[in-house]
Amino acid sequence: MSSTVIILCCIAFVAGFVDAIVGGGGLIQTPAGIILFPHEPISRVIGSLKIPSFTGTFFAARQYLKKVKIPLPRLLLFTSIAFVAAFTGSYCLTIVTNAFMKPVIFIILVFIASYTYTNKNLGLEIQSTHFKFKWYKGALICLVIGFYDGFIGPGAGSLLVLAFISVLGFDFLQSNAHAKVVNLATNMGSILLFVLKGSIMWSLALPMAICNALGGFLGSKMAIAKGNKFIRSFFLIVMIATLCRLGYDVFLH
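^ that's the sequence the OP posted. Answer follows.
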């Protein structure tokens, strides 16, 4: 196993751990992949990273669903919309260039990092215990963020958590449970497209998947048991370091 793959496996573990608690593991994993594979097409790098993202999210979702029950009609509605939207977004990704995507990803990372930092109570406190809402609001969230996850990806988990809290009034645990299930659907939609396009580096994706799954399992258990104040701080530190390195790659390299 090359040193690059080993580094990315370590990053995948951290990304899975962080993603299970506060969302946004792709904010750590995706820029790292782009930096370490600068000559690979963006679609090939992101396609490969969808495999570890899926496994980490799967084990995290299992833990959350032990505590949170999601009605079946809502589950089917959210996941079917998210699957199709992500498949479409990933198709769009395969037809754009690296020169276009790197600055776009950098800007998205800056926006989400800034929002996470300035909203200090995001996902840390119960916002509401009332979970009745108009179905189209949830459907629209899954459509927009599903497409975003397929097309760009980083921060989709954080955006889902944010949307379910601010738009639907979910608390931290409810929001994370819904976000993980929707994220599974978006990952599946993207993976299907990238498999059909032959855009997955399996020698990279499979070992990273094991590490991401372990991180997701441990992170979700900590989130349920202890909350996420410490992880939020850790997440922001990693984000800042990642932004600095990706910014150098985009603007100075």
